[in-house]
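Below is a filled-in request sheet from our internal design queue. Each sheet records the structural input a requester submitted and the sequence that came back. We keep these sheets so that new team members can see what a complete request looks like end to end.

REQUESTER: design group, bay 2
PRIORITY: normal
MODE: inverse folding
CHAIN LENGTH: 364
BACKBONE (tokenized):
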């Protein structure tokens, strides 16, 4: 019997190889809670989609165990897993109307007609398509087709819904709108969702937790704000959001602080997160919005001369590219709340930041 206190989905030492040599997924151990919205995020070839396909039953793990609600499902056929799926291309039947597409999972399960009607009404209302039920996919916009695919995945009350890059074909504005729609549907229904994307903004917007994949391994599994504010290694720091990278050597180290020499250009005080010890190489990670321009003398432990190289106005902030400590692509985001900063390319200014906002990570 399934125990509600146990994880809803479990991957235990799961591996996957297609050729018997290269592991696409390496010793994956992952637990997903009931009702959670978990996103698998990573670049192409990182193992995220293969992980989703193994959970769906379209791929079989080479090694290890996958459990759903306490049941081992390694060899269980996809249609017996009670899982809803939403794909990037929607996979709608072109010859069927909206209501026929959405009703299809119920019909193959021999659900009575009056129950089908009741569920259709409910789910089409939920995705805001009650007036489109007689149209065919070709008569719908991309966003409407995506809603139909979502309705079809939810109509049979699945244990789990899997989404593979479902918003990838939509334009930016519609994609952002649908992110919030899916998030709100998840909050309303409480269904467990596992979502695959390479879009980090999408992952941060929608998820309870995000698993960042690279080279078949989860590099970090955390809440969105933790991933952004507290990356555990240089890959995550670089992949999530914009990030200033400074390479150097550790010249002083204690439990809560370190000093890093940046190629003889200057000494930076930082927070040691993943460092090997004195004299070793490290990569510093610093978010552009954590840097202050023209700070009061002595107000920051890290203060350096900078030359403005480029200014880009982006509405709520101005993106300033600067030359600092030998790095010509150092970015500072200056908020425009009190007006656009009066900077010009070629200007020489001071900038500063706190040691705790500068994370010393593995050399990258």
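RETURNED SEQUENCE:
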């Amino acid at each position: 019997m399934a125990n509600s206190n146990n994880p809803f989905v479990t991957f235990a030492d799961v591996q996957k190889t297609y050729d018997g040599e290269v592991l696409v997924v390496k010793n994956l151990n992952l637990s997903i809670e009931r009702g959670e919205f978990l996103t698998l995020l990573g670049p192409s070839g990182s193992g995220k989609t293969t992980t989703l396909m193994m959970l769906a039953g379209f791929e079989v793990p080479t090694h290890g165990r996958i459990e759903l609600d306490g049941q081992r499902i390694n060899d269980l056929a996809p249609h017996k897993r009670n899982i809803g799926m939403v794909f990037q291309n929607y996979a709608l039947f072109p010859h069927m109307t909206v209501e026929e597409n959405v009703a299809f999972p119920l019909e193959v399960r021999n659900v009575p007609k009056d129950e089908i009607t009741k569920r259709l009404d409910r789910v089409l209302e939920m995705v805001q398509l009650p007036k489109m039920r007689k149209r065919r996919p070709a008569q719908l916009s991309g966003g409407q087709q995506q809603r139909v695919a979502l309705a079809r995945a939810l109509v049979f009350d699945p244990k789990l819904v899997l989404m593979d890059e479902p918003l990838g074909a939509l334009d930016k504005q519609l994609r952002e709108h649908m992110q919030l729609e899916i998030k709100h549907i998840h909050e309303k229904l409480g269904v467990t969702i596992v979502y695959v994307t390479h879009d980090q903004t999408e992952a941060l917007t929608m998820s309870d937790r995000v698993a960042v994949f690279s080279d078949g391994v989860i590099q970090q599994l955390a809440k969105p704000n933790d991933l952004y504010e507290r990356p555990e290694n240089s890959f995550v720091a670089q992949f999530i959001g914009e990030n200033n990278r400074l390479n150097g050597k550790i010249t002083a180290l204690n439990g809560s602080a370190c000093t890093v020499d940046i190629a003889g250009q200057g000494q930076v005080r930082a927070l040691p997160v993943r460092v090997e010890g004195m004299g070793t190489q490290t990569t510093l990670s610093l978010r552009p919005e954590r840097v202050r321009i023209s700070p009061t003398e002595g107000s920051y432990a890290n203060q350096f001369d900078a030359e403005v190289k480029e200014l880009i106005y982006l509405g709520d902030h101005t993106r300033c590219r600067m030359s600092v400590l030998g790095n010509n692509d150092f970015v500072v985001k200056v908020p425009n709340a009190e007006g656009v900063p009066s900077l010009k390319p070629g200007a020489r200014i001071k900038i500063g930041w706190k040691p705790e906002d500068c994370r010393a990570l593995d050399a990258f």
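SHEET NOTES:
- The two ends are 47 Å apart (CA to CA).
- The longest helix spans residues 172-189.
FILED BY: M.R.
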